[in-house]
Amino acid sequence: MPLRCYLRRDLGATGIEMAGSLTVLGLESSCDDTAAACVRLDGSAPAQILSSCVFGQTSLHADFGGIVPEIAARAHAEKLDICVKQALIEADLTLDDIDAVAVTSGPGLIGGVMSGVMCAKGIAVARGLPLIGVNHLAGHALTPRLTDAVAYPYLMLLVSGGHCQLLLVRGVDHFTRMGGTIDDAPGEAFDKSARLLGLPQPGGPSVEKEAAGGDAERFSFPRPLLDRPDCDMSFSGLKTALLRARDQIVGDKGGLTRQDRADLCAGFQAAVADVLAEKTRRALAAAATMLSAAPLLAVAGGVAANRTIRTGLETVSAEFGVDFVAPPLALCTDNAAMIAYAGAELFKTGHRDDMTLSARPRWPLDRTSPSMLGSGKKGAKA
Ligand code: KG4
Ligand code: ZN
User: Fold this and answer.
1) Which of 26, 171, 236, 295 could bridge to 339 as Cys pair (CB 3.0-4.6 Å)?
2) Which residues surround ligand 2, an ion (CB under 5 A)?
3) Atom of ligand 1 nearest to the CA of 332
4) What is the CA(301)–ligand 2 centre distance, in A?
């Protein structure tokens, strides 16, 4: 018992490196997954994920062609306590065993983020526990430390349905954005392209499956912004190029054959993979100049599941002679273990929030670079 009390009372706000164990309950509700998890840090041992529960909402939004924020917020409010209970049961813990509560407090769909923040505040105030607001993007960005104990600094490519950023991760709260999308996120482009071809959602896996039987050379899709020397990306024009190619075939032949669809998917996927690989190459080169050696390359987000994209990134990391880390998919996509872990790292630096913690729709990780344009269907890209 004493250990927990010791942590709370004596190291509570000092930021001193703790020797004992720290068990954090994490909550995530910024998009369309309600998640809770328990993560333990114990001295210098690797971080332990004691439980990680995720309740998805795909079926609730299926009829609407995208996420409906009000439906998402209501579902989070209904599911959060059940999810927390489940995470505690799976970890074989009670709230008595928890040392701190971490919660995504932005960026994301504001109603969902508010649901999570209110739930976390309720637990924290009822149990007298420290409360830590976590940036959702920091949760993703720190995941390679949770899964592979990667040391700072490293380069993270975050690619999902709502995010696309190249981040130099230098510390728990020290990020340099090397580049990002100026419009759609890659997952969003995959989803929209799948819709244009009549393929099921989520579009990424459908397009990848079709592409397996396609000829990536048949259509010459653009590689947007490669003519610019920076690390920024654009994917909305690619989806428009796919639409034009589709309409051209339909105009010529009256419809799409299975092979046409496969070739369109393969061409689209190759273009996305080329852009991500080339911009990552440039970011690694820039980071190598800043740090005097190229850092490790890591990837996270649902799009990281794509084999062609992964292969492109592996090739880039091999060119620089650096390791490539891709966490298991369940920890690449939205989850609360990453929030609990990021919360634990923040806790160790002495960071605490109080009952004034508010939900933030936008929250750039890199406070010095100018904000990115656009806000994807899955929330703020920041
Ligand atoms: O990280 P995630 O689960 O959710 C958020 O966006 O926050 O990512 C989901 C996105 C979807 O847009 C989905 O189409 C894409 O990741 N995705 C893929 C693949 N699997 C999922 N994109 C390309 N190839 C895949 N195999
Ligand atoms: Zn996410």
Assistant:
1) 26
2) 334
3) 1
4) 6
Residue with tokens 């600094």: 153
- Phi and psi for 225 in degrees, rounded to 5? 65, 10
Taking the centre of ligand 2 as the mean of its atom positions, its distance from the CA of residue 187, in whole angstroms, is 11
pLDDT at 135: 96
Write out the H or E segment, with its range, that includes residue 369.
none
| CA–CA dist 347, 364 (Å, integer) | 20
Contact assessment for residue 367 and residue 85, using Cβ atoms and an 8 Å cutoff: no
> Is residue 307 within 8 Å of residue 211, measured between CB atoms?
no
pLDDT, tens digit, 9 for 90 and up, residues 19-58: 589 999 999 999 888 999 999 999 888 999 999 999 988 7
pTM of structure: 0.89
Work out the pLDDT band at 63, boundaries 50, 70, 90. Answer: confident
Q: Which tens digit of pLDDT belongs to each residue from 97-118?
A: 999 999 999 999 899 999 999 9
With tokens 């048949």, the residue in question is 218
How does DSSP classify residue 6? I
3-state secondary structure of 358: coil
β-pairing verdict for 131-135 and 100-106:
parallel
